[in-house]
Every structure is written in structure tokens, then in C-alpha cells.
Amino acid sequence: MSEWVLELAERLIVGRKRDARCVYDVQAKQELILACGRPGISMAKLARDCGINANLLSTWVRNHERKADALPAPAVIAAEAAAPAFVPVHIEAAAPQAQAMLQLQARLPNGVVVDLGGCDLPQACELLDVLGRMRCSASTPA
Questions:
Q1: The pTM is what?
Q2: Following CA atoms 16, 20, 21, 25 in sequence, which dihedral angle do they give, to the nearest 10 degrees?
């Protein structure tokens, strides 16, 4: 056992009640709970070294963690109160892009020539979609 554990064990139990239950020093109890959170510390060994039941120590630690989870840190509350819920976003309108003009000429199997001069891409796509859905003599059943 290290010296700080021995010193903590001496300060931990300050008296006994009539029914033989122990009365614990609040400061020593808090130090013991915080010591359990250190890396590499065995809660059972620490409880044994301090002369208390490991289940009692784990109950203290669990209750401490619940209290810590229930109460948010004051700095977090202040930061949340200072920051607005929504942040305004400014979007600048993009400069209109020049549409590329297409020159399209299509010769259909029935001899019709479709000449699209000076149309933009969306118009050309729409026209080709309509032409693709039309029935022609080659696909019409006899």
C-alpha cells in the first residue's frame, strides 16, 4: 500500500453509529471516489486497503457518476447560452452561366431531317426524349 492510501484509510472512518454502521469523512470519501477514476487503479484493491466493502465503494462511485451526469458543467451552460441556436448563412447568387448553344441535325430513317440550331441543352434533351418515344414505321407491328 502506498502512503496516500494509508493516510486516506486513517481519515475515512470517523465513527460508528449505534447499529455498528460506519460514519465516513466526506472529504476522504470524495478523494477515494476520485482515486477510483485514475487509470490502473483496482477498485476492489483500493476498497480492501481502506478497510471498506468493494460493493460499498462501487455504489459511491456509481452515485457520484450519476450526479455528475445529471449536472452539466457551468462552462458548458454558459457556452450554450451565449451561442445562438441558429446561425445566419449568407448565400450570394451565382453569376448566371452562359448556356452553350447546340447545333444538332438528325436524319431519321423515313427521310425526315430534324435541324436544331441555337437551342440549349435542356431543350435538346426534351426534344430527343419526345422523339425517342414516338412510334415509327419500323417499330409498328403490321
A1: 0.49
A2: 10
Grid cell of 70 as nine digits: 445529471
- H helix intervals, 1-142: 3-12, 26-36, 43-50, 54-70, 74-82, 121-133
Cα dihedral 57→36→31→47 (10° resolution): 40
B/e letters for 70-86, b = 16+ CB within 10 Å, e = fewer, are eeeeeeeeeeeeeeeee
- 8 vs 6: CA distance, rounded Å: 5
Q: Nearest-CA neighbor of 42 among 51, 54, 53? A: 54
Non-local (6+) Cβ contacts of 43 within 8 A are 36, 54, 57, 58, 61
Q: In whole angstroms, how far apart are CA 6 and each of 3, 12, 23, 59?
A: 5, 10, 18, 22
Digit-coded pLDDT (tens) for 29-45 = 999 999 988 888 899 99
HSE-up of 18 (CA within 13 Å, CB side)? 0
